[in-house]
Amino acid sequence: MRKNWMRNVGLLTCAFVFAAVMSACTTQGGKEGAEISGLDREDKGSLKVAYFNEEAFFMQYGNAFQAMYPNIQLEVVSTESVFNAEDPVSEMEKLLKEQQPDALYLTEEQYAEFAKKGLLYDLDAVVKQDQFDLDSFQPSVIELLKARGGGKLYGLSPSFSSQVLYYNKDLFDQYGIPYPTDGMSWDEVMQLAERFPVKKDGDDALFGLFQSSQTVDPFELIRTIGEAKGLIYADADAGTVSIESPEWKAIFQSVIDGYKSGSISMPAADSGNMGGAVMMRSMGGKGTIRIGGDSMRFMSGQAAMTIDGPMIMNLLGMNTKMGAQGAVKADSGSSSAMKTLESPFKEINWDVVTLPVDPSQPDVAGSLSLDSVFSINASSESLPAAWEFVKYANGEQLAKTGSKSSPSLSSRTAFKKTEEGKNIDAFYALQANTQLLLRTLPEGFTDSFAELASGQIKKAVEGAQTVDDALKAIQTGGQDLLTKAKVEAGQE
Predict the structure, then answer these.
(1) What keywords is this UniProt entry annotated with (predicted)?
(2) Which of 82, 205, 244, 306 gives 475 a disulfide partner, CB atoms 3.0 to 4.6 angstroms apart?
(3) What is the spatial distance between Cα 355 and Cα 183, in angstroms, rounded to a whole number?
(4) CATH number for the segment(s) 2-161+368-435
């Protein structure tokens, strides 16, 4: 949970760096299914919005919304403190109950949890009543929102992220290797990676496949491949871990062999906290973007392929976009150690294809995620104003503006990103793997299991144990972790 939250915070921060450049309201209760009357410019009322920063809210949404409805009194409940909380979802729930905001800016995890607890207003009826056009949204986004909402629509998301396979065309040409294609399997992509002559160190280092800049442990790729094949490593209902199987072993063996040879990159030990990162100042000089060292490998021409989201597309060719050197600084972990460098980015001849899939589910991947969700408090006393705001935040006007400035992908199909000569449709081609969302594991178990598995994977890569030994240790330790987690969650 914490890991996913921090990834969303990183995406949020980057998005804002790029983007930075009523009588009826008070009489309608928050009763689910209540009809929401329309809001006119002259209507008076109030609207309390939970957003991470008041200044950012008014710059991004509030000023324009206030101009549309000048008699609606806007109040912002800051959620900045939630970002540093040990349990961000619980902290946000506490803030919701104490402050009772009408409209909420949520992460995907918060949205799913609050929908399950009945804290959010069901939008299905008002969408039909208002004839709000959901068909103008990316179908996979609406599908994911409903899946996260247990089959109902409790919010709208103006943007989303998905991962693709980036590849360096010049490196493929240099070594006479055919380009990747849409719909390749994971096995095919790993076989491509093996064909490059690996060199792990030095300025001329070369890797076949570098993992996402958001990857935090060596188990993550294995889990992703397994889930694409429909495998599960733990069943909370049955209370069993089932990682020691021939199917999982084949995936472990393939990835560990790749880690050993260097054809697949081993995630850096500090990738989770972005240590050893590059910091880039934004155009206005008021913000910075931190880019992990791993993601730099592809942009510096040291990896033939990498798996990543739309942010990397915005950074490729940054030399030209920034128009000057010296805008990039190395950060070794403390501000006092920063020094000016020439930009490490190269002009990469790149393109993208869809994320690798399993042939049995060629249109599905687990990489689709919601950058943010705008929802309405089920207890709101200002439903008309809250709905008008949610519509505005997800409206065509903002989508048109954001499509040019935001690194995220617009949920509205009319504002798909374009990049001349690039297969950008790959970002939009695959559906969410909603079956994964139906599987729930006890709080904290996923991270604990990943930590256990990663430790054993590293031992196997170092030659300290066999893959069979690693699987046996993960099976035994994982079963203990699941049993303990279920007891602590009161499920036993």
Answers:
(1) Signal
(2) 244
(3) 7
(4) 3.40.190.10
Query: In the block, which residue shows the tokens 């694409």?
Result: 228
Query: Measured between alpha carbons, how far is 255 from 190 in angstroms, rounded to an integer?
Result: 8
The pTM score is 0.83
Confidence grade of residue 253 (pLDDT, cut at 50, 70, 90)? very high
Q: Which two tokens stand for residue 341?
A: 């460098």
| Rounded CA separation 165/8 (Å) | 20
Q: Which amino acid is at 239?
A: G
Separation between Cα atoms, residue 3 and residue 448, nearest integer Å = 11
**Structure confidence at residue 491 as a pLDDT band (50, 70, 90):** low
**Distance between CA atoms of residues 207 and 263, nearest Å:** 5
* Residue where the block lists tokens 């490998």: 297
What are the contacts of 408-411 at 24+ separation with CB within 8 A?
408/11, 408/15, 408/159, 408/160, 408/161, 408/310, 408/371, 409/138, 409/159, 409/160, 409/161, 409/162, 409/310, 410/158, 410/159, 411/137, 411/138, 411/141, 411/156, 411/157, 411/158, 411/159, 411/160
- Judge contact between 239 and 483, C-beta under 8 A: yes
Task: Report the number of secondary-structure helices (H) and strands (E) in the chain.
Answer: 21, 20
For residues 342-355, average pLDDT: 81
Q: What pLDDT is recorded for position 443?
A: 79
| Cβ–Cβ under 8 Å, residues 375 and 114 | yes
pLDDT on residue 347: 83
Instruction: Report how far residue 352's alpha carbon sits from residue 314's, in angstroms, rounded to the nearest whole number.
Output: 13
| Averaged pLDDT score across all residues of the chain | 82
Distance CA 379, CA 31 (A): 7
The pLDDT assigned to 396 comes to: 93
Identify the three-state secondary structure at position 51: strand
Amino acid at position 245, single letter: S
Q: Is 230 left (phi over 0), alpha (psi -120 to 50) or beta?
A: left
Check residue 294 and give its pLDDT.
57
pLDDT top residue among 23 and 11: 11
